[in-house]
Amino acid sequence: MAFVIEQRLEDAQHEYDREADVLYVSFGPPRPCVTLAVEDWLAIQITPSAEQLCGLTIIGFKRIFSRIRPDLIENLPERVAKLRTARLLVQYSDGTDTLTFRFEEEQPAYYERFGDNIYLERSLVGREIIGFKITRYTEQGQQAMGMLLSSMIEALFAAPGTAPSPADALTRAFLEHLDIPRLLSLAA
Q: What is the Cα–Cα distance from 60 to 182, expressed in whole angstroms?
Protein backbone atom coordinates (compact mmCIF):
# COMPACT_ATOMS: atom_id res chain seq x y z
CA MET A 1 0.00 0.00 0.00
CA ALA A 2 1.92 3.04 -1.25
CA PHE A 3 1.04 6.40 0.27
CA VAL A 4 2.06 10.05 0.33
CA ILE A 5 1.18 12.35 3.21
CA GLU A 6 1.92 16.03 2.92
CA GLN A 7 0.96 18.57 5.55
CA ARG A 8 1.74 22.23 6.07
CA LEU A 9 1.49 23.53 9.61
CA GLU A 10 0.48 27.16 9.08
CA ASP A 11 -2.31 26.88 11.70
CA ALA A 12 0.00 25.74 14.53
CA GLN A 13 -0.95 27.14 17.95
CA HIS A 14 0.41 26.36 21.40
CA GLU A 15 -0.60 26.55 25.03
CA TYR A 16 1.77 25.99 27.92
CA ASP A 17 0.43 25.04 31.35
CA ARG A 18 3.19 26.28 33.69
CA GLU A 19 1.71 24.68 36.79
CA ALA A 20 1.51 21.19 35.26
CA ASP A 21 4.57 21.76 32.97
CA VAL A 22 2.65 20.53 29.92
CA LEU A 23 2.97 21.92 26.39
CA TYR A 24 0.05 21.49 24.01
CA VAL A 25 0.58 22.19 20.30
CA SER A 26 -2.32 22.01 17.84
CA PHE A 27 -2.09 22.02 14.05
CA GLY A 28 -5.44 23.48 13.07
CA PRO A 29 -9.05 23.66 14.19
CA PRO A 30 -10.48 20.94 16.47
CA ARG A 31 -11.45 17.76 14.65
CA PRO A 32 -11.95 14.10 15.58
CA CYS A 33 -8.63 12.50 16.43
CA VAL A 34 -6.95 9.61 18.18
CA THR A 35 -4.26 10.15 20.82
CA LEU A 36 -1.22 7.87 20.72
CA ALA A 37 1.23 7.68 23.63
CA VAL A 38 4.68 7.51 22.03
CA GLU A 39 6.62 7.78 25.29
CA ASP A 40 5.51 8.49 28.86
CA TRP A 41 6.24 12.18 28.18
CA LEU A 42 4.99 12.45 24.57
CA ALA A 43 1.50 12.01 23.10
CA ILE A 44 0.39 12.81 19.58
CA GLN A 45 -3.04 13.35 18.13
CA ILE A 46 -3.79 12.18 14.57
CA THR A 47 -6.94 11.82 12.51
CA PRO A 48 -8.28 8.23 12.54
CA SER A 49 -7.25 7.75 8.92
CA ALA A 50 -3.67 8.83 9.85
CA GLU A 51 -3.64 11.39 7.07
CA GLN A 52 -3.14 14.42 9.29
CA LEU A 53 -1.43 15.32 12.51
CA CYS A 54 -3.81 17.22 14.81
CA GLY A 55 -1.39 18.05 17.61
CA LEU A 56 1.07 16.88 20.23
CA THR A 57 1.44 17.04 23.99
CA ILE A 58 4.77 17.11 25.82
CA ILE A 59 4.51 16.34 29.54
CA GLY A 60 7.38 17.81 31.54
CA PHE A 61 8.31 20.22 28.73
CA LYS A 62 10.36 22.63 30.86
CA ARG A 63 11.95 19.85 32.92
CA ILE A 64 13.08 17.99 29.78
CA PHE A 65 14.10 20.88 27.55
CA SER A 66 15.75 23.10 30.19
CA ARG A 67 18.68 20.67 30.12
CA ILE A 68 18.96 20.10 26.41
CA ARG A 69 17.50 23.10 24.57
CA PRO A 70 16.69 25.98 26.95
CA ASP A 71 16.24 28.23 23.90
CA LEU A 72 13.06 26.29 23.03
CA ILE A 73 11.56 27.33 26.36
CA GLU A 74 12.73 30.93 26.21
CA ASN A 75 11.61 31.44 22.60
CA LEU A 76 8.53 29.20 22.50
CA PRO A 77 6.23 31.67 20.67
CA GLU A 78 8.92 32.30 18.04
CA ARG A 79 9.56 28.55 17.66
CA VAL A 80 5.84 27.89 17.10
CA ALA A 81 5.78 30.76 14.58
CA LYS A 82 8.68 29.06 12.75
CA LEU A 83 6.80 25.76 12.90
CA ARG A 84 3.98 27.42 10.94
CA THR A 85 6.31 27.58 7.94
CA ALA A 86 7.21 23.88 8.15
CA ARG A 87 6.19 21.24 5.67
CA LEU A 88 6.00 17.54 6.40
CA LEU A 89 6.23 14.94 3.66
CA VAL A 90 6.05 11.22 4.38
CA GLN A 91 5.88 8.73 1.55
CA TYR A 92 6.08 4.98 1.22
CA SER A 93 6.81 3.17 -2.03
CA ASP A 94 5.72 -0.45 -2.52
CA GLY A 95 8.14 -0.85 -5.41
CA THR A 96 11.23 -0.06 -3.35
CA ASP A 97 9.81 -0.88 0.14
CA THR A 98 11.15 2.49 1.30
CA LEU A 99 9.72 5.02 3.76
CA THR A 100 10.94 8.57 3.18
CA PHE A 101 10.42 11.42 5.64
CA ARG A 102 11.30 14.99 4.75
CA PHE A 103 10.57 18.21 6.63
CA GLU A 104 12.05 20.68 4.18
CA GLU A 105 11.36 21.43 0.54
CA GLU A 106 13.13 19.04 -1.81
CA GLN A 107 16.61 20.26 -2.66
CA PRO A 108 19.94 18.84 -3.82
CA ALA A 109 20.95 16.33 -1.17
CA TYR A 110 22.99 13.26 -0.41
CA TYR A 111 22.43 10.34 1.95
CA GLU A 112 24.62 9.42 4.89
CA ARG A 113 24.32 5.95 6.42
CA PHE A 114 22.92 6.01 9.97
CA GLY A 115 22.17 2.32 10.43
CA ASP A 116 21.90 -0.89 8.42
CA ASN A 117 18.83 0.34 6.52
CA ILE A 118 18.57 3.97 7.72
CA TYR A 119 19.95 6.92 5.75
CA LEU A 120 20.01 10.57 6.81
CA GLU A 121 19.25 13.00 4.00
CA ARG A 122 21.55 16.04 4.13
CA SER A 123 21.41 19.16 1.99
CA LEU A 124 24.43 19.72 -0.23
CA VAL A 125 24.55 23.34 0.88
CA GLY A 126 25.02 23.60 4.63
CA ARG A 127 24.94 19.83 5.26
CA GLU A 128 21.77 20.21 7.35
CA ILE A 129 19.59 17.15 7.88
CA ILE A 130 16.40 17.58 5.86
CA GLY A 131 14.97 14.09 6.29
CA PHE A 132 15.72 10.39 6.33
CA LYS A 133 14.95 7.20 4.47
CA ILE A 134 14.33 3.67 5.76
CA THR A 135 14.84 0.85 3.26
CA ARG A 136 13.38 -2.68 3.66
CA TYR A 137 10.60 -0.98 5.63
CA THR A 138 8.14 -3.90 5.62
CA GLU A 139 10.73 -6.27 7.07
CA GLN A 140 12.74 -3.96 9.34
CA GLY A 141 10.79 -0.69 9.64
CA GLN A 142 9.72 -1.15 13.25
CA GLN A 143 13.28 -1.89 14.40
CA ALA A 144 14.61 1.05 12.37
CA MET A 145 12.06 3.43 13.90
CA GLY A 146 12.98 2.11 17.34
CA MET A 147 16.67 2.66 16.62
CA LEU A 148 16.03 6.23 15.43
CA LEU A 149 13.92 7.08 18.46
CA SER A 150 16.31 5.48 20.97
CA SER A 151 19.31 7.22 19.39
CA MET A 152 17.53 10.55 19.57
CA ILE A 153 16.47 10.05 23.20
CA GLU A 154 20.03 9.02 24.12
CA ALA A 155 21.31 12.16 22.38
CA LEU A 156 18.80 14.29 24.29
CA PHE A 157 19.96 12.99 27.65
CA ALA A 158 23.68 12.54 26.92
CA ALA A 159 26.10 13.83 29.52
CA PRO A 160 27.59 17.28 28.85
CA GLY A 161 30.80 17.06 26.82
CA THR A 162 29.79 13.85 25.03
CA ALA A 163 31.25 13.71 21.51
CA PRO A 164 28.69 14.70 18.83
CA SER A 165 27.24 11.95 16.66
CA PRO A 166 24.84 11.73 13.71
CA ALA A 167 22.07 11.13 16.29
CA ASP A 168 22.80 14.59 17.74
CA ALA A 169 22.40 16.18 14.31
CA LEU A 170 19.19 14.23 13.68
CA THR A 171 17.83 15.21 17.09
CA ARG A 172 18.65 18.88 16.50
CA ALA A 173 16.95 18.76 13.10
CA PHE A 174 13.79 17.25 14.58
CA LEU A 175 13.73 19.68 17.49
CA GLU A 176 14.13 22.53 15.03
CA HIS A 177 10.95 21.44 13.30
CA LEU A 178 9.26 19.54 16.16
CA ASP A 179 8.36 16.80 13.67
CA ILE A 180 9.36 13.58 15.42
CA PRO A 181 5.88 12.83 16.74
CA ARG A 182 4.40 13.00 13.25
CA LEU A 183 6.77 10.45 11.84
CA LEU A 184 6.23 8.03 14.70
CA SER A 185 2.46 8.31 14.48
CA LEU A 186 2.37 7.83 10.73
CA ALA A 187 4.75 4.89 10.76
CA ALA A 188 2.98 3.07 13.63
A: 19
Render pLDDT for 107-164 as a digit per residue (tens, 0 to 9).
888 898 988 999 988 888 888 888 889 999 888 887 887 777 777 666 655 556 666 6
DSSP the chain: --EEEEEE-TTEEEEEETTTTEEEEEESS----EEEEEETTEEEEE-TTSS-EEEEEEETHHHHHHHH-HHHHHTHHHHHHHHTT-EEEEEEETTTTEEEEESS---SEEEEEEETTEEEEEETTT--EEEEEESSHHHHHHHHHHHHHHHHHHHHTPPTTPPP-HHHHHHHHHHHHT-HHHHHHHH-
